[in-house]
Specification:
Layout lengths: L10 E8 L3 E2 L9 H14 L10 E5 L10 H8 L8 E4 L5 H14 L5 E9 L5 E2 L2 H11 L4 H9 L9 E2 H5 L9 H11 L4 H21 L9 E2 L5 E2 L11 H5 L21 E11 H7 L5 E10 L8 H12 L9 E4 L4 H12 L1 H7 L19 H4 L6 H16 L3 E8 L3 E9 L6
Parallel strand pairs: 3-4, 3-5, 12-13
Antiparallel strand pairs: 1-10, 1-11, 2-10, 5-10, 6-7, 8-9, 11-14, 13-14
Amino acid sequence: MSRKRRANRPVYLIDGNRSPFLKARNTQGPFKAADLAVAAGKPLLLRQAFPADAFDEVILGCVMPGPNEANIARIAALRLGCGEATPAWTVQRNCASGLQAVDTAAERIRHGYSELILAGGVESMSQAPLLFPDDFVNWLGRLSTSRDLPSRLRALARFRPHMLKPVIGILCGLTDPVTRMSMGQTAEKLAWLFGISREEMDAFALRSHQRLAAAQARGNFPGELTPVFDHHGRAHERDDGVRPDSSMEKLARLRPVFDRRYGKVTAGNSAQITDGAAWLVVASAEACERHGLNPVAEIIDSEWAALDPSIMGLGPAHAIGRLLARQRMKTADIDYWEINEAFAAQVIACQRALADDAWCREHLGHASPGEIPDERLNVDGGGISLGHPVGASGARILLHLMRVLQREQAQYGVASLCIGGGQGGAMLIRRHEEAAS
């Protein structure tokens, strides 16, 4: 179909769905990433007023697809019935891959390249591979190219047991290759820079669990989350990393993980290793009219920022500050916030940075936009209690923000994440006034 391309068309969020976020428990989880993407997508597509092959594109964020999941977006699109003629492609921006997928979809629609896009994110962190070290790989290569018995025996004689020590893929992925710092070490640095105490971090973590437990008690995220069923027929119905019985006393007993002698960052005040998937339907006004769609929210603007990788957790402060400045808005103009909880220290540092006029003038070039109030931030929990499947979290926080604005009949929301490698992303959305409550 021929389309007239023009800039600055409105872009709408129509609907979305996600899987429960399932905590990794030292074994492979029941779902590969593609399985999760399909399981989360099927209920969403079944309730739409258009067929699955009506999408112009499918865009999926994923950081660590499995070896049999090359271009996982295409695999998911075909399994969801989006049709052989529907292009599908995968994007990767570390922790913000899911948000990047939606932002890319919005730009494609805004400029007239597409009208209707399925976008989201997925990660099965429990399926991250165990790798062989380089010396074993090289030894295996020499053995495989040996053509006679003497050369094979010489190759075999070079084997050493230490060659079989596995390389843990998930730890490689959570370590910055430039600074050689783990993500937890970057959080420790922020705690030191902003004078954040262990008690403040644990209190933030406790609040995350309490808010998620309360949200589950109210109805487990209606219109956002549907159960998924594994190959044994077991239903996974809710985010299972929540600890309703958590307390400051229990959190205080946990030892620091990343700086065992002086540190403050523990497993309790960090995001959990988790599997999950989330999708959103993104559409133009023309697609809404053609299919009779009722938008829930409009994507107003987005911002991507970069900074020193050793303080990557401040990425949201950089992205949010620039986004608000461009829109001539203050934090008080935003009704609800979703900032991914990679670490309690990281979110608290972003709050303090944006409220600090001197920091904002030095790093953003303008005055402070104001403080992000706790009561408007991650009102139903976040990555510490829900988990942080890195490719999916950006799509999840945007989906939930959309539902919060709808539920509370509020106007503006901002979703934001820090990004390993020293980046930050933020997206501003506005509830569509005609959306049903």
